[in-house]
Structures are given as C-alpha cells and as structure tokens.
Amino acid sequence: MAGPAAAAPVYSGSPCARNAKWREDDKGADVKPFTPEKAKEIVMSLQQPAVFCNMVDNWPALHWNTKYLSALLDGKTIQFRIGMKTMDLVPQFETRCSYVEATLQEFLAWSCGQPSCLSGPFSCYEYSKYWAYADYKYIARLFEHKEEVFQDIKWSDFGFPGRSGKESTLWIGSEGANTPCHLDSYGCNLVLQVQGRKRWHLFPPGDTSFLYPTRIPYEESSVFSKVNVANPDLKRFPEFRNATAHMVTLSPGQVLLVPRHWWHYVESIDPVTVSINSWIELDADHEARVEEAITRTLVCAIKSAENPSDADLWLNPTEIEATSHDINLQYLNRAVSAYFKCQKASVSEQAHPSSFGAEKMTSASRKRRKRQVGTEPEGCKLLTHEADFSTVKAEKLQKISFGPHLIQVLPQSQETSSMDARAVESDYRDLIHGNEGGHFGKLHCARKLLVMSNDCEMPANQMDSDGSPNASQTTLSTNDLLDCLVNPHVISLVAQLLLERTRI
Prior knowledge:
Elements: H1 15-25, H2 36-45, E1 50-52, H3 66-73, E2 78-84, E3 98-102, H4 104-111, E4 130-138, H5 139-142, E5 169-174, E6 178-184, E7 188-195, E8 198-203, E9 213-214, E10 222-225, E11 246-250, E12 255-258, E13 263-268, E14 272-280, H6 285-304, H7 325-351, H8 358-365, H9 380-390, H10 394-397, E15 406-408, H11 412-418, E16 431-433, E17 439-442, H12 478-485, H13 488-503
Antiparallel strand pairs: 1-12, 1-15, 2-3, 2-4, 4-5, 5-14, 6-10, 6-13, 7-12, 7-14, 8-11, 8-13, 9-10, 16-17
Subcellular location: Cytoplasm
InterPro entries: Cupin_8, HSPB1-associated_protein_1, JmjC_dom
Pfam family, one: Cupin_8
C-alpha cells in the first residue's frame, strides 16, 4: 500500500480553533478517488477485506491523536482494559483482563514511562509487561456535550449521508493491546486508522469451523474463537492449520473494510494507537438478530440455572448482567416481528420500485439513532435500500478496480508475490439499557440496533395471506422456542458437536 497519509498540520490554540483552521485549509481538498455512490457500492458488495486510500485526507478526525483528544476530554476519565504482553496459548478474553479508570493524560504519561505513574491508576502495571486499551468508546457518549466534533468524521464520503461521529466508536491503545479473534453477527465494518498502526489478522466466513467458535464468554453479536490466532495451540486445535489468514497493517489515513462475518484479531503495534470505526447495517441483520435473541435466551437460561461461581466468567464485561427469561423472550418476539416487517417492506419495494436520490438517502440516514427498548427501530426502508447495494451481481463486482486507492487484503500466501511500491504493508462494541428493564448487550451504535419497537409489538410468527401480522395469533412462547430447540435435527447436530468436543 502507499505509505501513510501525510501528517496532519499542527495548529496551536484550542481544539475548536484548530478544527476551524483545519476546515478552512481543506476546503479544496475534497477530491476523492471514489464518488460516495461508488464507495458505497464497494462497501455493500465486496465480500473480501480491502483498504481505501486517499478517501479521508480532508477529515478533521485525522488529527484526533491522543494529545488532541486529551485536551478535548479535559480530564474526563475513561475505562481502560489491562492485559499481559506475554503470549499465551489461550486467548486473552476480556474476562481475563483487569480494568482501570484513567484520563488520557495519565495513559500518555504511563505509556511514556513518566515517574508520575508510580502513584496513578496504572501504578500496578509496568508498561513493559502490560498493555492498556480504551476500546468500544462511543463518541456520542464520550463527547455528549461537544456534539460539534461529530462532524469531524464524514462517512458520507463513503455513501452514507448523515453518518458521522455520532454513529462511530473510538479505540485507543498502547503497544500490544488487542481484541480477541471474533466475528460480528451484525453488519460490515469501516475502520479509520488515525494514529499509530494496527495489524489485522482476518479470516473468511468459510474458515469458521477451523477457528473453533464459542459463545462463552457471552456477548451479544460477538462470536469468539477459542484459538489464540497469534500463538495457536495446534495440538488442541489442529484444524486451525486449514484456516487462511489475510493480514494487513493499517496505517494512519487508511480505511479498512471488514465484510460481514469475517473473523478478525487486531493488535496495536506502535506505542500508541487511535482508531475510529462505524458498523454499517445490512438487511441480513434482521435474521441475525433473531439468532442472537435465541442465543441470549439459551445462554442466560442455562447459565442462570447453575450455582453461581466466581471462577465461571461466562458473561463478558461488556454485558452488565444476565437478562431475565421474560425480557429475553420479549426481545425474541420483537426481533421476529421486525424481521417480517422488513421482509414485507422488501417485497413492497420490489413490487413498486422507485428511485432514491442523495436527498432521500440523507433524510433517511438522519433518522439513525441508538435504539432503546420501546423505541422505533432503524427504518426498514433504509435497510431495504442498502440491500439493493448488497445484491450487486458478479458482473458488477468485476467493475470494482483495485489499485493504489483500493487495495485487496490478500491471503498470507499471496501477499509476497503481489506486493509492490503501492501494496498494503502486510506483516502477516453503546451499552443500551431497556426502558422495560434488562440489558441487551454492547449494542455497537448502529451495528447492534435493538429491534424492539412500538410498531413491532404485533406477533410476527404468524402472518396473514397478504403478509401482514395476524393479530389473532399469540406471541412466541417458551414452549414454541423449546419445541424448535429440541427438534430432532437440532438435537442431532448438538449431539455431533458435543461428541466432536470430546475429541478436542
């Protein structure tokens, strides 16, 4: 890949003054290698990871380094996850980490080895032995009183009008900070690297069985791998040999596209790193939310029936508590209802096709909000429109030209032969509480929109002949769910998986 984007100019004065100066200097620097429409077509149709270059040169967010963010936060504390730098055969899940509350100034002092850290929140953690990670920090919450900074992030350049920092997440880490290998159940992912470099290990959805997936520790919409992909235990997980790693080192100014259901392990390789990402909703998320609702109901029911044990860290720290069966069943019903509602909207859209311009998309996009229980979900119409992009056929994909502005992330075995001066440098979640009680996981901004809606309270498991909900039917019950779970086909598959587990 072409080298990192040119360093952002340094301005003195307050962050707001620097923002104004940045925008003034870059008024004419808005020529992009891809139009928003073309960029969106790529994002919604490309089924392999790729790196966009020269798409964000005029984004004010490029100067969101840790010193700038420290001044912007003005002493506000954030939570850091602390992990060991030593490489174990077992993944360093979030349940195995320690946590501290600290300011960015304290984090910077610790990462620089300043003596003041001897008595600060990082005093128990020697920098040479530990890493720190402020991950999943929702910008809308972090800067809730400084909403003007949301506009520093312009996902509209990628064809998503109205999407800004408000729908984005901030990640700040020290060298060695990492996210265990996992896949996201919902959406696809756009990741902007701002400061330092991160190495991404990516695996295609077809490698899922080779990565030994697990839902323990449980976190909504995250399926973890039992394998530490950076130091695999091949005796315990021999099938991992068959996995195909796609590796890329992401540098400042570059934007990585992580397609739906691609596994990824991410590690910081510079002393300090800053990244910003946004999960893009996909039409397939509706079915995925039904699957996630079933998973949550099962995990919470079975684990809650056990005698509690401090040693059994089955719930990821991103999940505040195990939700009750009644709340989980309510979640399931509304997920099913939303699924059928958008299925109906999709059929209607196909029957009555209509064009939608940038103005219409902007209006729909502006309606994006983090959802809580009892609120209107993401508009089905928006998801239907985005599905139009996801159904691009093979002949359209052939029109996607890779080059200096869009770099393929290739399998490890192909990287050496394909790299040139322009090649990618390759060295190999909004906590939302329900208004009706309970917690539905680390709802990653738009990625993890709850499907609970006043409009979706009608039972969705039964439909009239015209596709509309049949109000005469009852909602899904525990017995309905249980009947599906004990279906002979399901039991047979579970038995095979349990028998296979004994061989590991």
